[in-house]
Structures are given as C-alpha cells and as structure tokens.
Amino acid sequence: MTGGGRPGSPSGDGDPGASREATSPGPLSRHILSLADTKRLLGIRYSDWLLGSPSIETGIAASSMAQDEWGHARLLYAMLKRLGFDPFEVEHTRPADRYYSASALDHPFGDWADFIAAVVVVDGALSVALESFSGGNFTLARSRVPKMLAEEEYHRQFGTAWFARLASAGGEGAARLNVAARAVLPSTLAWLLPGDDVYDELVADGRVLPGEQVRERIRIRLGDTLGAAGIALDEIEPDRAGWDPERRRGPGAPGEEAVERARGDRNRDLFVE
Amino acid sequence: MTWGLGEGVYEVFARKNRGEPLRHIGYIDAPGDELARVYAWKTYDEENWFEMCVVPRRAVIPVNRLEGPWARNLPEGTE
C-alpha cells in the first residue's frame, strides 16, 4: 500500500497522524479503510445469497444491497486519495492480512440466519459509524455519506423485518438467529467502539462522535430488534482480544477467496483506468 | 392470501415525476407490508422514481368486472 503521507489541505482534510513511511495509516485513513473494507466484504457476503435466498424478491434485495455496499466502498476508497493514497492500489493489491474489515465477515455466512444477523448487526454498526463520520469535520464525509445513509435505510428495513419475522416464528429458526446474532455482536461492537488511542485521536480531531454517543446510537438502533430475540445489547461486551490497533480489529483476516474477489484478481488483465 | 413462505402479493405503482398519474409497474411477493416496501424499491429500481406505492392485492376490489384475479376480493353477497 502506498500513501500514508500527510498531504494536508486548506480544508483541514489531511491525516496528521499518518506515518511518512507509508506503512501505517493515520487515524483518519484507518477509519476510512475500516469502513471501506467492511463494506466491500459485506457486499461479497451478501452477493453469495443472490441465489439460494428464501424467495426471488429476497435474492433481488440481496443483490441490490451488495451493489450498494460495493458502491459505498468505492466512494470511501476514493476519499483516501485526499490523504495521499492510491485508491487503485488500496483496492486491488493488498493481501488478506492487510484488510481492515470487521472480523465478523471473515467467513461466509453459513445460513440465512447468519445473513440476517449480519444485516442487522454489522450493516447496522456500519450505518452508525457512517452517521458519526458524516457529523464530523471531514468535508468529503459530510458531502458523500448522507446519500449512503439514505440508501442504507432500506437495508435497515429489510433486516429489521426479517429479524422480527424469524424471531417471532420460534423454533429452530429463532434459535439459529439468536446464535448467529450473538456470534457477531462482540467483535462488531469492538469494531464500532475500538476504545483505543487511535479512535480517541479521531474524536479529538472532530472527525467522529465520542464513543459514548456512538454506543447510545447503536443501542437505539439495535436494542428493540435484538430484544425480540431475547438478546440484551447492554449485556454484550465488545471482544477486543488480540486487538490490532492498526487494522482496528482482532486477529485473523478475511478468507483469501473473498479477498481475491474483492481485488478482482481473475480479471486483473482487463482493468481499464 | 398466503402461500408457502406466508407471502402475499402486492401490486406496485409508481410515477417518475410529480403530477404524473401513478401507473401499475408490476407486483412482488412479500410476507408483510414492510418487506413489500423494500422488495418493491429494490426490484423496480430501473427508474429514478419520484413516488412508489405498494397495495396488497387483497385490498383491490373490482368494480365492473366480477371475474378475474381480484374476484375473490368482492364483498360478500356481490352478484
């Protein structure tokens, strides 16, 4: 990954904490990479269910949400150009262990319950993070993120309705949903609320909301939905075991197969700039 | 009116510009109103719609033709 410099700008959109050695993104770059990589991986996981979802309409919705996530990722990667990165290299050359995506997306969804849990928890956390980012002082986020959030509203409706449907059905489906949601919550809460020095620096620079405000927003967004499945969000502790402050996540990496798709390895020779 | 997944049929109406009449653009199957809204928006997204609505097929009451797809919605006693 090239870049990581501190180009600075009259609008104050540079990333003062970035390393000049080009290997350690500054707080703002880490934040954008984490958002973009998580959206890219989420789009890949959604795309696995274009076929095989419970109905044609559901598959179309999954397809559309995958497109949304990939489009949002592209816009977020493009923001890195302002911070001295080459977006093409960021998107197409990194190995899996250089991805900053939320660890909840490291593996494919095993079933439809996993899919719905991810729509509610991971996609929901992404939206809260984007709300926080769009309310900060980074001009590109202020101008570009609101449209993403408008598109994300349909993801919220989709996830909430399906979650409620599965939870109220009882039986094996509700049990699987409960397990699936509990599986992704601790690491996703850690991703949303890193509680580390890098995040504190972002807050101090006015880029994002303080952690306690973000926590309140995720509580409002997810509390009732998860409650329908018997999950009390306040009782879930963020899992920061083995925390990697640079990649804003725990140990591990997304599967190589997913990263090959994210990079577009098979079509590398067909890239046109 | 439910089948299989407990889904119902919703008719989809939309218009491209303010002032134009809503026109019927298709239908979707959905298990409830909220998912019907999402499915309609995501399925018929080829246009930049100004307005889109969904109507449960069971709410469409025929007026002059007493046979056809909506006949089952006729009020009891209609002849």
Structure description:
The complex is a heterodimer of chains A (273) and B (79). Chain A is mostly helical. Chain A has one domain (25-242): Ferritin. Helices cover 59% and strands 0% of the residues of chain A. In chain A, helix 1 (27-47) crosses helix 9, helix 2 runs antiparallel to helix 5 (139-169) and helix 5 (139-169) runs antiparallel to helix 6 (171-192). The longest helix of chain A is centred in the middle third of the chain and has 31 residues, at 139-169. The radius of gyration of chain A is 18 Å and the shape is globular. Chain B is an alpha+beta fold. Chain B has a domain at 8-60: Ubiquitin-like (UB roll) (Roll), CATH 3.10.20.520. Chain B has one helix and three strands; from the N terminus they run E-E-H-E. Chain B has one helix spanning 33-43, and strands at residues 8-15, 23-30, 51-56. In chain B, strands 2-1-3 form a three-stranded antiparallel sheet, covered by helices on one side. Chain B starts with 7 loop residues before the first strand and ends in a 23-residue tail after the last strand. In chain B, 24% of the residues are buried.
β-strand number of chain A: 0
SS field, number of helical segments of chain B: 1
**Low-confidence spans of chain A: pLDDT under 50, at least 5 residues?**
2-11
Mean pLDDT of chain B: 88
Any idea what the shape of chain A is?
globular
Q: Can you give the helix content of chain A as a percent range?
A: 55-70%
Order of helices and strands of chain A: HHHHHHHHH
Which chain pair shows the most residues in contact? A-B, 17 and 16 residues
| CATH top level assignment of chain A | Mainly Alpha
Count of beta strands of chain B: 3
The largest pleated sheet of chain A is described as: none
CATH architecture of chain A: Up-down Bundle
Strand content of chain B: 25-35%
CATH superfamily of chain A: Ferritin, core subunit, four-helix bundle
Gyration radius of chain B (Cα, Å) is 14 Å
